[in-house]
Q: What sequence folds into this?
């Protein structure tokens, strides 16, 4: 299940967070493909949006240097056999890499190959649920929490407001559930979702830092927290704060 609501919370509540998996870093790793008579493989590393690595096409290797901007990488491939540089473009969609090169000596013909990320997982392991993270879980967070976001505008007779409920449930086994509850305002009302159709993620804590993880993509976000019996505050150590009240 995709973590739509949890990622919504990451957007609204964790604008103060740090993320351990920015899009620029997704290019790091090994890829492999075989289509249209071309066998291909690649290995990339990314640091500060600078990409380096090796691409092998039908046994012939080239050295890559380029830059990364979100899901696109551009730069040059140096063919070690003919000692020439060729322009390349790489587009990453999940674990699928589309890699294309331009060959000036062939009337600027574009050759494109598609590779898949190599994870080392077998079909059997892919169908097995990922184990929960082994990080510590502060017991003060375990339970169901509610944050009500209120938006208002205008004044006097033009004043209007709109409120939305956001729920999070932290389980002792490291599972976190997230769903949007009731929304109301300006003549509009919606009952929203419930825990029965909540989105699922994982959580753990280190000191006063809370980490949320999407188990499918391993995307991770962190924020500082303070929790007592009936109240929890998520904050960035500064002005950004979100207050949750315990409902269970």
A:
């Amino acid at each position: 299940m995709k973590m739509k609501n949890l990622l919504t919370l990451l957007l609204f509540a964790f604008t103060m967070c740090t993320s351990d998996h920015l899009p620029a870093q997704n290019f790091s790793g090994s890829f492999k493909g075989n289509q249209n008579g071309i066998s291909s493989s690649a290995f990339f590393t990314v640091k500060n949006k600078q990409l380096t690595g090796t691409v092998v096409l039908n046994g012939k290797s080239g050295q890559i240097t380029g830059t990364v901007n979100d899901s696109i990488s551009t730069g040059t491939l140096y063919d070690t056999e003919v000692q020439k540089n060729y322009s390349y473009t790489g587009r990453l969609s999940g674990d699928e890499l589309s890699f294309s090169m331009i060959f000036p000596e062939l009337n600027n013909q574009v050759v494109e190959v598609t590779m898949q990320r190599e994870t080392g997982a077998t079909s059997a392991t892919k169908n097995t649920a990922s184990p929960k993270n082994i990080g510590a879980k502060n017991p003060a967070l375990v339970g169901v929490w509610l944050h009500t976001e209120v938006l208002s505008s205008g004044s006097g007779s033009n004043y209007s407001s709109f409120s939305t409920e956001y729920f999070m449930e932290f389980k002792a086994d490291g599972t976190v559930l997230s769903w949007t509850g009731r929304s109301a305002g300006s003549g509009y009302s919606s009952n929203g979702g419930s825990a029965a159709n909540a989105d699922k993620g994982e959580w753990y804590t280190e000191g006063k830092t809370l980490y949320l993880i999407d188990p499918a993509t391993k995307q991770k976000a962190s924020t500082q927290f303070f929790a007592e019996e009936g109240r929890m505050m998520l904050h960035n150590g500064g002005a950004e704060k979100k207050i949750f009240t315990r409902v269970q």
Notes: Helices lie at 4-12, 123-126. Confidence is low (pLDDT under 50) at residues 1-25, 121-131.
